[in-house]
Structures are given as structure tokens and as C-alpha cells.
Fold this sequence. Notes:
Pfam families: B12-binding (PF02310), B12-binding_2 (PF02607)
Structural class: alpha/beta
Number of strands: 5
Keywords: Cobalt, Metal-binding
Helix content: 55-70%
Largest sheet: 5 strands, parallel
Strand content: 5-15%
InterPro entries: Cbl-bd_cap (IPR003759), Cobalamin-bd (IPR006158), Cobalamin-bd_sf (IPR036724), Met_Synthase/Corrinoid (IPR050554), Meth_synthase_dom (IPR036594)
Radius of gyration: 18 Å
Number of helices: 11
Organism: Pelobacter propionicus (strain DSM 2379 / NBRC 103807 / OttBd1)
Order of helices and strands: HHHHEHEHEHHEHHEH
CATH superfamily of the largest domain: Cobalamin-binding domain
CATH architecture of the largest domain: 3-Layer(aba) Sandwich
Protein name: Cobalamin B12-binding domain protein
CATH topology of the largest domain: Rossmann fold
CATH class of the largest domain: Alpha Beta
Strand order of the largest sheet: 2-1-3-4-5
Amino acid sequence: MENRYLNDYFDAVFDTDRDRALEVIRQALDGGVTPEEVIFGIIVPSMEKMIGGMVTDSLVTLSQHFLASQIAEEVTDMLIPRFATAPEMQGHVIIGSSFGDFHGLGKKIVGGCLRAKMFQVTDLGINVRPERFVEAAVNGGAQVISVSSMMVHTALGDMGSRRVRQLLREGGLEERIKLIVGGAPYRYDEQLYLQAGADAWAATAVEGAEIISRLIKEVRAQ
């Protein structure tokens, strides 16, 4: 596969030019690049490069990252049915913002990255009650619940991830369903996830995908 497709696509999402990004994908497909190569050779590396730029030198803004995740999600949903063989999904993740938290941007970025990396994602939206997280995970056979919080009081509130942990414990589900958290409060205190009752936390979407993959392996090894 020609590197120009990767470079052109990254330049387009860096410029937040959705139409140009999708045109690059169309040109790649017309040029003989397979849907699998588009996902794993263009979309995923571009997402990782965007996240790297945001973390290491702050040259990538949150809005650029958000657009990249939206396009990644759109292209992934479009191309998965065109794979030569059905892709093996890594697992099922329930995501949502904690109860009382109406911030959804970070959660959407995580969802786009997870879908591009072949996770089944159920997005419950914002302001999600703990009972809905657990109910969706049980009914959907999910291995991981991911709770996003952008404020300390929603990260540590009685109706946040602590309550999700309590419900998992009371239901005897802790070995079957792992709990990961993310959001601004955890960046300032890397041990805060323990107070929130989570099994893990992640600073970025790419790191989150890696940790969720590990958690799913732990569940399946039980």
C-alpha cells in the first residue's frame, strides 16, 4: 500500500477536512487497497499519530481528535462488511458518561478508537445511571464497562463508578465484567481510579484500547 494514502488521510483529518479524508479513503479503495488495509494501515495508525501528537507536544487539539475518531468510526462501520472474512472482534465494551455528567466528547473519541480496533461498542450516552451500565453489560454479554467522568464529583459520586462496582459485587459479576474509568480527574491523580472502584484507568483512547484488551483476556482466562 502506498504511504501517500496514509499521509494524505492524516493531513486531511489534521486539517479537520472530513470530505477530503473520505475522498482519500475512496481513492485508496479504487486503487486496489483492501478494506482491511484501510482500517489497519490508514485509520488506526492515523488515530495513534493524532493521539501521540496531542499527548507529547500538544499540537493536536481535542476537536481534531474528535473529528478523527468520528471519521474512523464512519469508515470502520462502512468497511467491516466488506472484509474478505468476518473480522474477529476483540470483545464487547459498554461505554457512557457517569450519572450527572453531561460531557460526551471524550467518550465519543474512545468509542471511535475502540471500533477501529475491532471492539464491539455499545454507547449508552451521557448521564447514565449505574444500573443501566450493569444491565447493558449483562444483557449484551460485555466483558468491560467503561465510565467517563469529566468532573471529580461525578467521578467519585455515589451514583458513579463506585455504584457500578457495588452492583457488580452484589451480583457476583466482578470476575465476568471489568470496570475501567477515564476523564480529566484521573489525569491529575493517577490513583484516583482506586477510589472510584475501577479495575483500571486510561489517559488516552489508544491506551484505553490496550488496557481493555488486557482486561478482556483476564475475563476469558477465568
